[in-house]
Amino acid sequence: MGTRREPTARQMRLAVELRRLRDAAGLSAREAAALLGVNSVQISQIESAMSGVSEQRLRRLVTYYACTDEELTDALAVIATDRTRGWWEAFRGALPTSFLDLSELEHHATFRWDVDFLHVPGLLQTEDYARALFSRRVPEIPEAAVQLRVDHRMRRRSVITGNQPIPYEALVHEAALRIKVGGRTSCRAQLNRILELSEADHVTVRVIPFVLDDFADITAAMVYAGGSVPRLDTVVRDGPHGTVFVDSEAQLGVFRTLFRRVEAVSLEPERSRDFIHRLAKEL
Hints:
Blueprint lengths: L8 H17 L3 H8 L3 H8 L7 H10 L5 H12 L15 H12 L3 E5 L10 H9 L7 H14 L1 H4 L6 E6 H5 L5 H14 L5 E6 L13 E4 L8 E6 L2 E5 L2 H17 L3 H14 L1
Parallel strand pairs: 1-2, 2-3
Antiparallel strand pairs: 1-4, 4-5, 5-6
Helix pairs in contact: 1-4, 2-3, 4-5, 7-8, 11-13
């Protein structure tokens, strides 16, 4: 296989998992290379996602690493042989790579959880709301770039509005619902859009109200995307210097716990719908 110039986050995840399995087995790259009849440089390229690996070689490596988790092995084989060129590829070269990696992650996710404090989660946003957010970026971006970002965000919604939607749960703070992004008309339309989407059986929206005492479980937005097996789950967080994909087992466990804690203190879905409906009427 040829060398890649820019591996996707999904390809990087496969590489990371193979490296973790080798490390857990206490084997060196040279020992793994000897099994495949290649040199250690090729193993390094596989483990840095600069080169792919065939399903046959992947299964030989995983067996050599004494991994007995058949579901994980099968899931890794699926990633290794995946040749999907999704709709997001039309944006390659026009948008930051992190945008495309998030789209690919969502496309393959088995479920999705969101926690947001200042903005409505992207999958729930209307076009006007998204445009208002992108238009206020610092530094400013040209109108054509804003439109590309809006188009991309609207396409992403297909994971919960398409023919094969995934289970989706959003925990949204009252602050995010009250901030008038794009003005009153835009905000009212956004609240009504949330109500419309929350009617679907696979979509759950819960409000985190201001009235909670001593609430400090999470201080930033979180996207949790379920993998085909729990070990391949991924958390996505936006930071000051860009998007971060978190995939270590220890950190995933922390974020699962945090999500459940916030979920437990959030309003029940029906009460949340009533809450959002009242806010929309106030505008």
